[in-house]
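hey so u asked for the seq, here:
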Amino acid sequence: MNQGHSGKVSLETTSEWYDNWNKRVLPKRITLMGGEPSLHPDLTEFVYLTRRKWPNSYIEIVSNGFFLHRHPDLAVALKETNTTLAVSVHDDSNPDYRNKFEPIYRLMKDWITKGAPVEMRPSVVHWLAQYKGFGDKMEPFEDNNPKSSWNACVSRLCVQLHQGKLWKCPALAYLPMQAEKYNLSEKWDPYLKYVPLEHTCDDKELKDFFTRKEESFCSMCPATEQYFSPSNPLLPVSYWKKKYDT
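ran it, structure tokens below
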């Protein structure tokens, strides 16, 4: 859920972060996300920068698509760097959404004809919950079963590069931002003590970080899959093709 955070990381800062890790960490997959990544004015340059630093990784951008028109050179960058653009389609049979999505679909088709790796990923309106409530009413689940929380976690393989450090997951990475903005309850204090991995770590610390599975911090998330709200599945991709290709 949108918690109202904002901010942009510069190319220069990101390049420094990359340089601190790219000789030691060789990820199979790198995902450029936000928030919404297409809101960043330098998205195209981020694509080239990421490919230079990790020439052999699978790189993707995950976007809602609504601001891609701001990046007319992105299609060329995607093709030249073999970076995949994955556009998430969120729909609950709302005609307004479908009408707004139509120009995005046409833009994607145009970029595909130019050789850009573009794909559409149907998503769901409900989202897996990693906390209860919103803003200063946000609370951890505290099911006290970190192993089950780890097994149910949608982010268990989503190591986050944030502030130049490696974080176990996005929820832990951005919790301090949430605490700074909102008056969170003391229940969050144990989880705010999480210490991310610095680039000055030794090889053993690095290996331990990537081989460690559940730990006490996982208790902040549910031990079983929880959702913000019930919803219907999206219309299939074939629907969009039928609607816009005719």
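The radius of gyration is 19 Å. The beta strands are 29-32, 58-63, 83-89, 118-122, 160-162, 165-167.
lmk if thats what u needed
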